[in-house]
Amino acid sequence: MKYPEKVYLNGNIVPFEDAKISVFDRGFIFGDGIYEVMVQIEGVFFYKKAHLDRLQEGLNKINITFDTSSLLIDIEKLLGVTKLTGKDCLLYIQITRGVAPRQHSYPLDIVPTVMMYAVPKVLPKINAVNAKVITREDFRWSRCDIKMTSLLGNVMLNEEAVQHQCFETILHRDGFFTEASHCNVFFIKDGIVLTHPANKLILDGITRQVVFELCKSLDIEIQETPVSINDVSEIDEAFLTGTSTQIASIQQIDDHILYKENNIGPVTQKLQEAFLKIKSIN
Ligand code: PDD
């Protein structure tokens, strides 16, 4: 992993070494901020409006006053300066509440800190990942719908996957699968796609929403029904979704092997093929 050469910070595009924020920025002190990640494919951002709308909703949920539509011009400038206009790249946006003497409650008249960077990124072939995953208790807080920068729970749970040479950790709360450390998770049983409802216990991923659209257009039944950890051995297929993960087939859940070698189940495969098609038109 390399640092981006330039970053956007509060209206300026500067070499990353020169992008400095205060130690009293509440993003640093409390993780008091919201972020977003999106990808540009052949010059067009994939579901840009949905990502910016989710960013706006996150800011509204925690009372940070900022209009994300003001970012549109700055995103174009950033892509221009970093020579990524028209290219495949990943854009990271982070908005924190801003700088103030440390106090828990929201300070008045505070100016948000806005940071963005773009890095070249070509997404891997859609079926390149056949994920092995481990399962762990979802010990994160109960507002996982907020895409906040304080990701310590996700970081700790993702590290466990890495320690076990796995792609992801899928999480369960009260005996039911919620999502994964940086992806949403879906299961397939008897041709029906099952995933956790988009409530406060998961992030409603943009790719997750795309999967709902695809199921509708392909006439595949999809239900927002949590899957029990006791039913893993009954599952026919499972997959992960996320902005850079796209739709990744799950090969193994703990000791339960869904496929030997790199086979992919028929429903997952159909969704991957349909996803590839919309990727090129969005
Ligand atoms: N992760 N759930 C969690 C906890 C996530 O962090 C993510 C995204 C998703 C999938 O959301 P989307 O389809 O909108 O990318 C679900 C991002 C990419 C990240 O933190 O890098």
CATH class of the largest domain: Alpha Beta
| Structural domain tally | 2
Q: Just name the CATH architecture of the largest domain.
A: Alpha-Beta Barrel
User: What fraction of the residues are assigned to beta strands by DSSP?
Assistant: 25-35%
Oligomerization state of this entry?
A: single chain
Helix-strand sequence: EEHEEHHEEEHEEEEHEEEEH
| Unique ligands | N-(5'-phosphopyridoxyl)-D-alanine
SSE-based structural type: alpha+beta
Q: Could you walk me through the main structural features you see in this protein, from its secondary elements to its overall organization?
A:
The chain has about 280 residues and is of the alpha+beta class. It has 2 domains: about 5-120, Aminotransferase class 4, branched-chain amino acid transferase, N-terminal domain (D-amino Acid Aminotransferase, Chain A, domain 1); about 130-280, D-amino Acid Aminotransferase, subunit A, domain 2 (D-amino Acid Aminotransferase, Chain A, domain 2). About 25% of the residues lie in helices and about 30% in strands. The protein contains 6 helices and 15 strands. The strands form 2 sheets. Strands 7, 8, 9, 10, 11, 12, 13, 14 and 15 form a 9-stranded mixed beta sheet that branches. It has a 6-stranded antiparallel beta sheet with strand order 2-1-6-5-3-4. Helix 5 crosses helix 6. It starts with 5 loop residues before the first strand and ends with a helix. The mean pLDDT is about 95. The structure holds N-(5'-phosphopyridoxyl)-D-alanine (PDD). N-(5'-phosphopyridoxyl)-D-alanine binds near residues 154, 208 and 243.
